[in-house]
Amino acid sequence: MASAAAVLERLDAPPASLLRNDACDTSPLAPPPAAPFSDARLARDAITALIDEAELTPKPALVDRRGSGAHRDLDLAIMRRSAHALEPTFAALARTARRRGEPSALLRTELAQIGRAGEQDMMHATGGSNAHRGAIWIIGLLVAGAALETCSSASMRTHGPGAPNHPDTSRVCTVAAQIACFPDRFAASSDSHGERARRRYQVGGARREAQDGFPHALDVGLPALHAARARGLDENTARIDALLAIMSTLDDTCLLHRAGLAGLHAGQRGARRVLDAGGSSTAAGRVALDALERELLALNASPGGSADLLAATLFLDMLAHRDASRS
To answer: Which interval of the chain is the signal sequence (predicted)?
Structure first.
């Protein structure tokens, strides 16, 4: 299969009529987005979010700086390689979204082609390990949504004279959800671990999360992150508590695939116990977090879906706080 960059080359010559109607046309009448929200910048933000999630420590039964968690085929070095291999994919997703200018069936089809090529790039970089398949879907849609939103000044929020404009994260999620609701017309019948778990246990999975507007990132992860910061907690602790908040309510298909309902309930209840103890910054919370990890490791279960949505949370948080001087 061709790489994401090669797929983009094939897609990158739309008819002139499409270019004339493109809301993000880079002609003098429609200037390109500011550098903080360029395709390259959005791609780097996506990679930063993936790496920040991977490096966050301690996470229950997930790859982090301590080790591989419940994963035998992954480690931190592999996660980093995978993330970096996806940078061209995310840039291609942003560029294609801007070129099309609005959510559509055609855009959905093109993004899917790029995503599948990116998945092959990831597998090549990791030696066959699935480090970020779910993240390509979740983060990829958000990158496309951000690209569409930031090509229009009407969608940006201004924080005073001279301050950089920022996209409305709720609008980014809404636009990404609109894209996700179109069918992928050329997708092969999916038999992924997550899809099998979704069908067996009748849960929404990553597809429903996207089509619903990423509620576990927008309405759970981000508020938890902001609340922890407001309490004066350090950034590492704030991010751990955001992960736990997501885990406490998400029907995580990674947990379901690995350990069934027992694994899902262990993850949800254990995360709630940590939060009820005051979060991971308290002595009681740390004891509960250690107990949660032991239970998940005993079940060989890992909350990978929650990890993907934490990365989505971090990506949205970066969008909301982008400083133009960092472009």
So the answer is: none
Does 68 map to a domain?
Answer: yes
Helix (H) or strand (E) holding 167, with range, is: strand 165-167
Per-residue model confidence (pLDDT) at position 323: 44
Using CA atoms, how far apart are residues 61 and 63, in angstroms rounded to an integer? 7
Q: What is the 3-state secondary structure (H, E, C) of 296-326?
A: HHHCCCCCHHHHHHHHHHHHHHHHHCCCHHH
Nearest to 292 by CA among 280, 304, 282, 281: 280
DSSP 147-162: HHHHT-GGGEEE-STT
Instruction: Residue 161: give the domain boundaries.
Output: 4-8+32-186+203-326
| Region class of 232: left (phi > 0), else alpha (psi between -120 and 50), else beta | left
**What pLDDT digit, counting tens, does each position of 246-290 carry?**
999 999 999 999 999 999 999 999 999 999 999 999 999 999 999
> Smallest Cα–Cα separation from 94: which of 56, 133, 53, 41?
41
Rounded to an integer, what distance in angstroms lies between the CA atom of residue 132 and that of residue 86? Answer: 9
Residue 151 resides in a domain = yes
Q: For residue 22, is it within any domain?
A: no
Claim: this prediction has a pTM higher than 0.85? yes
Domain-located, residue 207: yes
- Best CA proximity match to 133, nearest among 308, 290, 303, 14: 308
